[in-house]
Here is the input.
Amino acid sequence: MLSPSLWYDNEIILLQEQDHRDEIKANHQLVYLGLGELEKSGRMLVPFQAFYQQLEDNYPGIALERQLQPHLDHQGSKQPNIIEGLQFYFQNR
Here is the structure.
């Protein structure tokens, strides 16, 4: 997920993950999260970190990676996160 809008609707995605955790916990999980540090003036950072922590804490078999591109906004973080996300995918599939 690149620049996920986890803040949307009062961070409902974090609640949905909790509600469906038991259903999806056994699935093979391969998750890359990428964000620019300056996206939405930093407003996206807290839910981004919270979602990453939820995944890390509750999915022991997950292949999980996060990249926070320093000093970059949405447009600036796109290219490095695409490259790193593809590398992560091919190394872990």
Remarks:
- The chain has a mean pLDDT of 92.
- Residues 8-92 form one domain.
- The chain has one domain: 8-92.
